[in-house]
């Protein structure tokens, strides 16, 4: 498959994403809040010529992925204590940037306070990513990519996460069909048929755990990530004409589509859109209206939402990620400074 759009935009998005990741990782310090780091990352992206391809996410210890703060700073279900970094926390920072819809997606893992408790796992996570990328030449079967990543993690004494994958990227589409395995899935696994394709772009992001199962589970409720996305499958105008939406719901749908296209967005980005139609409403009333509107938009499949993800047996999770373009000569890492 040929990548649409200009290669320059893909490279520029990758550069901004990498610079943001490297700049913001130093802000992950004892006493800082998750929210402060998330907002700082998103400000950095805007200041340096990009737009967030998805909300910046922070995942601490057993939390694996897909968590960003909401406008009310509600912690994930099951999280004990404040959303403040503590010495020894194992923190995954995932940052995505788009330029004209071309996406750079990257992540890293750090230990708060650099006490050396998680050094081996951090190294193993990074090496698993790099081992996967090394074999991503045109025509390589996907099961060989997965085996390279998974064996690297196992050799270091950790278990690869088997039910969370990397993904293909296309303009304005964060998860574009093809999944990138990070474990020895086997040549007959129907979920990973096919080969690495020249001209395609992939986010390569192996996760590994100290847990025994090598699995992640959903954090309840359904929208625990605080992240939503316009599916692109339903037109708000038609939904309004068919009376599936009321005017206020249609207006919210239109605003979300104009701002974010089909890329994921944060609840805290969109929630202020209710201030104009309901200037006198208090927090409780506005939250109730938001919940009702979003519920309807999900019901008609205009919107989708995501669970936050955590290790199924409570293990510590590590992750590193690059965005890679497949050239005739092999993989080109786009998320470089």
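^ structure tokens above, recovered residues below v
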């Amino acid at each position: 498959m040929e990548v649409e759009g200009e290669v320059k935009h893909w490279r520029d998005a990758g550069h901004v994403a990498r610079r943001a990741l490297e700049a913001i990782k130093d802000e992950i310090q004892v006493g800082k809040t998750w929210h402060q780091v998330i907002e700082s990352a998103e400000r950095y992206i805007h200041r340096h010529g990009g737009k967030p391809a998805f909300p910046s996410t922070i995942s601490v210890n057993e939390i694996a992925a897909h968590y960003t703060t909401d406008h009310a700073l509600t912690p994930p279900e099951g999280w004990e204590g404040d959303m403040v970094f503590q010495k020894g926390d194992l923190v995954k920072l995932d940052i995505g940037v788009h330029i004209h819809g071309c996406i750079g997606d990257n992540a890293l893992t750090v230990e708060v306070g650099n006490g050396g408790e998680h050094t081996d796992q951090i190294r193993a996570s990074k090496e698993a990513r790099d081992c996967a990328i090394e074999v991503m030449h045109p025509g390589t079967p996907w099961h060989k990519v997965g085996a390279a990543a998974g064996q690297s993690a196992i050799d270091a004494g950790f278990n690869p996460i088997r039910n969370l994958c990397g993904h293909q990227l296309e303009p304005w589409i964060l998860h574009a069909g093809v999944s990138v395995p990070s474990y020895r899935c086997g040549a007959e696994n129907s979920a990973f048929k096919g080969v690495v394709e020249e001209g395609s772009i992939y986010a390569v992001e192996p996760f590994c755990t100290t847990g025994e199962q090598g699995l992640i589970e959903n954090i309840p409720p359904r929208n625990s990530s605080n992240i939503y996305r316009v599916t692109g499958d339903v037109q708000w105008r038609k939904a309004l004409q068919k009376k599936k939406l009321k005017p206020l719901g249609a207006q919210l749908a239109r605003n979300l589509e104009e701002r974010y296209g089909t890329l994921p967005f944060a609840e805290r980005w969109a929630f202020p859109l209710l201030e104009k139609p309901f200037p006198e409403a208090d927090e409780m009333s506005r939250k109730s209206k938001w919940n009702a509107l979003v519920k309807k938009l999900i019901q008609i499949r205009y919107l989708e939402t995501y669970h936050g993800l955590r290790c199924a047996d409570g293990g510590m999770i590590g992750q590193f990620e690059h965005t890679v373009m497949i050239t005739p000569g092999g993989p080109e890492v786009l998320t470089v400074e």
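The longest strand covers residues 90-99.
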